[in-house]
Amino acid sequence: MAEEEGNNKDLKVIVFQLKDEEYAIEVDHVQSIERMQTVTRIPRVSAHIIGVMNLRGVITPVVDLRRRFGLEEKAYDEATRILVLSKDNIELGLIVDGANDVIDITTGDIEPTPEVVGGVEEEYLRGVVKLEDRLFTLLNLDKVLHDRSTIGV
Amino acid sequence: MASVLIVDDAAFMRMMIKDILQKNDFEIAGEAANGEEAVEIFKDQQPDLVTMDITMPEKDGLEALKEIKALDSNATVIMCSAMGQQSMVIDAIQAGAKDFIVKPFQADRVMEAINKAM
Amino acid sequence: MSNSEYLDVFIEESQEHLQTVNDSLLQLEKEPDDLSLVNEVFRSAHTLKGMAATMGFEDLAHLTHTMENVLDLIRNEELEASSEILDVVFDSVDDLEEMINDIAEGGSGKRDIQQIADQLEAIQRGEAPSAAGSAEVAAANAQTEVGGGAQNLGESYDEFELTVITQSKEQGFSPYQIRITLDENTMLKAARVYMVFEILEEAGEVIKSTPPVDELEEENFDHEFIVTLVTKESKEDLNERINRISEIQNIEIILIDPEELGENSEAESEPKTEAQGQSSKDSAKAESPESSQPVQQLEPQQQKKDDKDETTKKPSEANKTIRVSIERLDVLMNLFEELVIDRGRLEQISSELDNNELSETVERMSRISGDLQEIILNMRMMPVDQVFNRFPRMVRSLSKDLGKKVNLDIYGAETELDRTIIDEIGDPLVHLIRNSIDHGIETPAERLDKGKSEEGTLVLRAYHSGNNVFIEIEDDGAGINQQKVINKALSNGVVTQEEIEKMSDEQIFGLLFESGLSTADQVTDVSGRGVGLDVVKNTFESLGGVVTVNSEQNVGSIFSIQLPLTLSIIDVMLVELQKEKYAIPLSSIVETAIVNKEDVYSAHNQKVIDFRGNVVPLVFLKNVFEVPEAGIEDEYYSVVLVSKGEKMAGLVVDSLVGQHDVVLKSLGSYLTNVFAISGATILGDGQVALIVDTNALIK
């Protein structure tokens, strides 16, 4: 649980790795964390949607977050994880370089996104969290799930 | 005051019937949880009326009814049935049951059956 | 059972009864003399009233009651079932429907029914017949078998029964009619009936029972039955004995006079035999050819027995079905889908392991699950009548509103479709039917001018063909003005003049389904509802269906809809594009072919092949789906020929893998509008294959 008490709401987040930075996403809507698996390509959709996978019988779309953020590509490896998000009947897998741990923060820890987070569209982010010597960027879950740029082209 | 033997394997159902009967000034001659017990108590107490559950362990209500009728052909027995036991109820009527009531029990129905049977 | 469960049953049954009322009323309008129809309506209304009253829906109960009074007059022939009267009855049925729908949507079912109830009451008062008339009528009344006079509770007897009654009276027995009414809440009614009969049979001899004993045993009665008994006991004793049984609400015993009964029954017998001869003939015809023996030659008594057999048989057959909620069937279907996927997986594993015992077992399991699949899919099938049954009413009121005469013929209402599809096709069909009546069929005057019969005909047809069900809506009206469609399409920019020139008639008519095209000069109340034919087309296409239209000026139009039998498990052809697997629904495949490259021609920059005399364009799926790295080109093309209505295309693939049953799954809500992909499925090896929407590929 959070070390500091106050008016702030406790928040449990999953911290994951993307390139050389740490990001976080609320744990509430993370349904599971999967190892990389076979993904079937879907033709004629945005490049960051790499396809759909069979997640225990449910067809789940998969987005490569590096591609979505315009970061350089990297081959998937042992550390690669798929964060499966599920909210309001939308299911989505996010490919990240690695999922490290779950930590507790409070909403008060969230600070506005500074300029330094280059390349990533701001609206995709909810803010940055600084905890001791770690700094990570909090993703805006709703924006990720309702990403208009993912509609077929 | 008429006496009644209550036969039902569920204590809850016995309690319900007992409550209804006591409110209407009946005397409880005894309670039995299966057919075997029912026949024994019937022999001992000679109640004026028996309410007899159909489905019970050891000896079911139909068998107990037949045995009671063999002991006393004038015995007044009312069967207690669940829905869907139509054919068993008819068998019971054939075997000499005076009437039947269907679970879940309603007090007025129970009393109607008892009053008409006595 | 909780209250809401009662409510569900109430709503469902009420709707069924309303449907019966509707159907019978429509039939009655055509055959106003058929009193059995009035009885049918009466019975349903009566049941509905009872149900509504029990559930505390007062307006509903009140209106049904008032309607019932009018129906009662009609069935006693004290009132003629004229079109005007039926209009009012129909209106009240509309109100009933509204109330029940309101209840179904969670409302209170309250409604202002004063006006319609007043109308019904006026009918009831205004046309009350004279006493003499009513006696005559009662005597001639064959169906309800209500004899006049206080000496009868509404029983009639055949000669044999009369003889028994007369003879037993001579021997000092008293014949009684006993009407026994059970408590409304009686449970195990049959056991109650058994107790009554036990007492009656102890007291004397039961001559007759209405309903007959076997129906009473099946509980095919509301709460009332009439027994005719000859006994030496007094009325009072009988009453006392029956009264010992509980859950009996009312006992009515009357002494009957056989002589009076005889007269009554003779007076009745003339028209009765005629009417019944007719009805048994009809039912024999309806049942099967073998049973249509010369029924008329039978003695009247015999015929009567036949009729009774008819009525007793039906309910017991109906008892062999049970109600299962649709949700449960859906759950069953979902579980089975999981099984199908695992079945595929097992088949794959067993073929890899190549173990004899394993493959045999898997094969056997596959066969059984195949049978199971058929049963489950069949369970979900419902007759299209579920949708069709509301159309006669609709056509009737619509043609009245528009001042047109329309005769609706329905064929193949028993054709079955998956219930998911049934659920969806109602609205678009309504639209097409409105369209046909509004724009297709002309007014009586116009029709006479054209030398047609005054009454237009609308045919609604459903039939099976292969894996599809076809629904057609055909009218003999004005047809579609092709030039008008072209003009409109050109002015709306839907097509160009060039394109028009290349189009077939059917393709031009097909433009009607493009958005923004409606050829009605005048927007009427009926068709101007803001929903266009494009919505109709989209709905059918989302169900995997295809709509086409054909028409001839002044002869009529025909809208044809092709629908898949079922949605969730489909038969597909698996194909490969490089290493990717795609599934093409078998329902849209005409044929597969291997085509030599030399047989491919170019026309307008489009590669085509000659397929049985037709020029068919080729679609290179690898290009459409942007499949990476084109491999070494083969000398031959594997082509899957698909069709959409009359149009065809040849899909070029790398190889054909084979035919499979697969479970159709959605791509999820994150992805919308993926081009030419209608869903996905999970293959035996756990991989996902996309399902190709061939309709999107045929231009």
From TrEMBL, chain A:
CDD domains xref list: CheW
Gene Ontology cellular-component terms listed: cytosol
Domain CheW-like: 10-150
One BP term from GO: signal transduction
Pfam family, one: CheW
PROSITE patterns the UniProt entry points to: CHEW
Domain of life, source organism: Bacteria
Protein name: Purine-binding chemotaxis protein CheW
Species the sequence originates in: Salsuginibacillus halophilus
TrEMBL record, chain B:
UniProt protein name: Two-component system chemotaxis response regulator CheY
Stored InterPro entries: CheY-like_superfamily (IPR011006), Sig_transdc_resp-reg_receiver (IPR001789), ST_Response_Regulator (IPR052048)
A GO biological process held by the record: phosphorelay signal transduction system
Cited Pfam families: Response_reg
Key words, A-Z: Phosphoprotein
UniProt domain Response regulatory: residue ranges: 3-118
Superkingdom: Bacteria
PROSITE patterns named among the record's database cross-references: RESPONSE_REGULATORY
Automatic annotation (TrEMBL), chain C:
Reactions performed catalytically: ATP + protein L-histidine = ADP + protein N-phospho-L-histidine
Coiled coil, from the record: none
This enzyme's EC code(s): 2.7.13.3
Enzyme class: transferase
Domain CheW-like: 569-699
Residue span(s) of domain HPt: 1-103
GO terms assigned for molecular function: ATP binding; phosphorelay sensor kinase activity
InterPro entries reported in the protein's UniProt record: Bact_Chemotaxis_CheA (IPR051315), CheA-like_dim (IPR004105), CheA-like_homodim_sf (IPR037006), CheA-like_P2_sf (IPR037052), CheA_P2-bd (IPR010808), CheW-like_dom_sf (IPR036061), CheW-lke_dom (IPR002545), CheY-binding_CheA (IPR035891)
Keywords noted in UniProt: ATP-binding, Chemotaxis, Kinase, Nucleotide-binding, Phosphoprotein, Transferase, Two-component regulatory system
One Pfam family linked to the record: P2
Sequence segments annotated as region (Disordered): 262-319
Residues annotated as domain Histidine kinase: 317-567
Chain positions with Phosphohistidine modification: H46
Example GO BP: chemotaxis
Extent of Basic and acidic residues compositional bias: 302-317
PROSITE patterns found in the cross-reference section: CHEW, HIS_KIN, HPT
Gene Ontology cellular-component annotations: cytoplasm
Biased composition (Low complexity): 289-301
Entry-linked SMART domains: CheW, H-kinase_dim, HATPase_c, HPT
Name of this protein: Chemotaxis protein CheA
Organism in which the protein naturally occurs: Salsuginibacillus halophilus
Lineage: Bacteria, Bacillati, Bacillota, Bacilli, Bacillales
